[in-house]
Predict the structure.
Amino acid sequence: MRFLLLVTCVFQFEARADVLGWAGWSPWTPCSKTCGGGVSQQLRRCLDVKCSGISVRFRVCNAKECDKPSRTARETVCGGETILSKQQCEVVCRSTSSGAKFIWRVGDGTPCQGTTHRSVCANGACQAVGCDDVVGSTLRLDACGVCGGQGDTCEAAHFDWKDSGEYTPCAKDCEEAARLAQLDGGTFDAQYQITVFVCVNTQSGRVVPERMCADREKPKIQRKECPLLVCPSRWLASDWSECVPTCGSGLRQRTVYCVQQQENHSINVLDKYCLAEKKPPSSESCVSKSCGTWDPGAWTSCSVSCGTGTRSRTVNCVGGTDCDKLKKPQVRQACYAGIPCNVIPPQALTMGDEN
């Protein structure tokens, strides 16, 4: 009887696995970082020929800031100079020896740059993080502060901004000033401290996400000057673009950054930190190869001896290969033979009279 029961259980499990397609999720892996925000992942195996859904999922872990963050996650990717990238989960590195540029993917768990919601990079893509810390989760805190709740576990809550009594930090040295300057997409001004306001539930005093105070006017921030830091900064320019247009006089452009040089890399900062030096031009006039000109030939005779026909000519580009196609002269046009086709020529009438 026990043997038969065991066989029945195994058969039922295999049949159910075949229907579902997926095996169960593995345990969460250890966190990729001990502080500063890392990720843990789970894997599952497809038991069928084809499975619908994902085979790996992530969650955020150890999000508490490190005690002494010296370099950001993006800075540690490059061994040379770090340049901000427009892509949220990529960083552009420039070799300090050859000047060559390389694009690298930031590590999983690195906060996405330039986003207003909580999101991290995972598998090279910026993904939202739910209140359950699972990457890709759509769960959000409800009005009662419950993750995934329906807002029915508390009385109607009221939210407002509150001065936390704290200020944004001042940089202790030039390296930290450069790191702070990268916050908020490179617009953070490390020369000042500003007041930090938090959104709170006015009944419980609990801090809630800032979106809960979206309909409340945020108090005016207060600023305090930080101790003056004189940090070595310089202008850095990208390569010139091609001359536009491609022949004759035109314009070429490039991007000019203000960077602060660190031990073995440099970081983009606000332009005002480089104002001691004149900013290199971001555009200049240029002259490419000579433009060609159109050389029209003579018109052929009209294609008919009476009425309306056509005539043509050759038009060649000389003195170059880049002639403006919009200015090319006509190669074919209508023409009139001089007499309508329903009129007998005078010479034909004369010949008839003689006969």
